[in-house]
Amino acid sequence: MSPTAVRVALRVRPLSTAEQSQDQTQCVVCDSAENKLTIGINSNYRSFTFDHVLDDTLNQKHVYDTCIGSLFDKFIEGFNATIVAYGQTGSGKSYSMGTASDGVDPGIIPRFIHHLFAAVPDAQISATFLELHNEDLIDLLNPASKNISIREDSRGNIYWLGAQEQTTASPEQLLSVLHKGTIARSTGATDMNKSSSRSHAIFTVIMKRYISEEESSGDSATDNGGKIAHHLKQVESKFHFVDLAGSERLKRTNAVGDRVKEGISINSGLLALGNVISALGDDSRKTSHVPYRDSKLTRLLQDSLGGNSQTLMLACISPAEEDFVETLSTLKYANRARNIKNNVVQNFE
Ligand code: ADP
Ligand code: MG
């Protein structure tokens, strides 16, 4: 994998009880061993391959173990990482991320939190939790605060001025920060008559720690007689967990008024994200221009997409036939993110 590559995992949720009772048929077939998925209705079908295809029988632990390992390892070494959950409302983004977790079978973030404190007990860990709605940034850890702005320092690091950064000393404390922000998000949504499915949520874990660098004090690194000195250097990295707004198209939701404004903002954010990710994976590009500035979402994630950072897109889909159109559109988006020509068997667009 090249350093800028974006990995794409595709997860299919099971049919819900309601869908089962309506005798909904499934329009996707997974071959998880081959990381291949075929979608179709009637005799029209199309196959896609991704880095991981996770069928509806695979549990949360499997998803974590399969998808997070390399991001986690690089993160604790000091590299930024980003996971974006993409898909239509109801496809399993929050379930997979673990923001809406009931604690029975926790998702990615709670697992990550326990993993992190166990792996680097000496690290300093803090977190921020932002919501992006209609290009407005809301601090979910301090919803009363206004005026959060995105800044870039001289080394190209992005930070958000005015957002609360909560320091945490245990997994329980960090989980309660996640919980607090999740509650603020759904309360705010009710107050403003907006669904949380129409905003992006960005939970960011920031780690600072000292790592030792072994250096030989002799003239050459192979000088066995040289004394080994341990130098400590501080590393700092960010891990963004992004639960994106529902990707469903405006038409389907019969949007009017404010909903239209929201829809335009969501679409432009998701489009910009798709363009950035696709530009990162495109080795044939002559220029290195990546259009981060096209949306607040991509600007916010600028130092954590591409470069030395690790990125995973978790595309979530419903298997139900009635969701065929949205599911196909998610597959196409995810396929474009991967920017590898799929060897597709295809007989429709
Ligand atoms: P989204 O965040 O994409 O709108 P949710 O994560 O809220 O969707 O999922 C919608 C519903 O489907 C929830 O009731 C959730 O518990 C259920 N669900 C989603 N994915 C799975 C899964 N892999 N296994 C079991 N239930 C799931
Ligand atoms: Mg959700």
UniProtKB/TrEMBL annotation:
Superkingdom assignment: Eukaryota
Localization, UniProt: Cytoplasm
Positions contributing to ATP binding: G87, Q88, T89, G90, S91, G92, K93, S94
Positions of the Kinesin motor domain: 5-340
One cellular-component annotation, GO: cytoplasm
Predominant cellular place of this UniProt entry's protein: cytoplasm
Molecular function as annotated in GO: ATP binding; microtubule binding; microtubule motor activity
Keywords for the protein's UniProt record, in alphabetical order: ATP-binding, Coiled coil, Cytoplasm, Motor protein, Nucleotide-binding
Single biological process term from Gene Ontology: mitotic spindle organization
Family from the record: Belongs to the TRAFAC class myosin-kinesin ATPase superfamily. Kinesin family.
Protein name: Kinesin motor domain-containing protein
Organism: Umbelopsis ramanniana AG
Residues of the full protein shown: 1 to 349 of 1052
